Structures are given as structure tokens and as C-alpha cells.
Amino acid sequence: MQTSVLFTARPKPFSPLVSLKAHYNTPSTLKTGESMAAAPKWAQKTITLPPHKRGCHLITPKILKEIEQDLSGFNCGLAHLFLQHTSASLTINENYDSDVRDDTETFLNRVVPEGQSAPWKHTLEGPDDMPAHIKSSMFGCTLTIPITNGKLNMGTWQGIWMCEHRDYATPRKVVVTLNGI
Fold it and tell me: What domain of life is recorded for the organism (predicted)?
């Protein structure tokens, strides 16, 4: 059973009331043999994703397959994913309908133009280079996901995407760091 504690605070004079709800594990929610004073543990793995064509790709199954053994050892914690590239990005979004991924790619291509008429100075690696850097900055290269009872605690329709913003992609590396008890 989880217990809830409600904290309230007024960060600055005249600011609206901020409410935070904290959930704490009680002895009945801990795994057998685990104490409430369990020392935090860490696990880290670098996952290499094969080259993907330009677009947004659901990579949740690949990530889970690579970390499932370590992940199962955490009752409560955080999974941090870091993509080691500047022309691709990570995001969490729809995990069911691939049209959402296609529509997201269409949106990105309309918002960040490329080609001869684009205003970018940085074109050392081709006309898709600077647009890829901008798109990567828009979505970012990191994700933090809660871990609950040995699983990533995402919503039913949420999945991890790797968005490839280049025409000629290379393998991409994601460093996954797990921390918790």
C-alpha cells in the first residue's frame, strides 16, 4: 500500500498556492527482503540503434529488450536516456498509430525548412545538416522516465521515439542510466 502526503508551500509572497503530492513506499509495498533503508543502486548501458531512415521511429521495444534484466531489479527509481548525437532526438509520444510519427515528421519539415532557399549558413555536411541540428534541439536528446516495480512507468499510449533528422543516417547510441532502489 502506498501512503500519500500533501505538501503545500507559498514560494513567493502573493504567489498562488502550490500543492505537491508525494507517494512513499510502506513496508507492505517493498519486495521480499527489501528494507526501506535500501541503498540506491545504479545500472548503465549504451544501446546502439541501427541506422533508421529520416522520420520518427518507435524504439520502446528495443530499449526494453536491452535493459529488461537490469530494470527488473528496481522497485522505484528513474531511467535516464541520453542520445549521443546532435542530428537526431528523443521524445515520448503515441505508441500505436504510426500516422502520428509521420505527421510529426511532416510538421518538423514544414517548420524547419531546408534546401537552397533555406537561410542556414552551416551546410558543411549537406542541406539537411543544420535543419537536423535545429530539430534535435526542439525535441532534445534526453528523457527521464519513472521506474515502478521493475517497469518503465509510462502511460498506456506512450512510447519512446528516436527521431532521425538526416537523410543518410548512421547508427545512433543511447546511454540508459537506471537509478533507484
Answer: Eukaryota
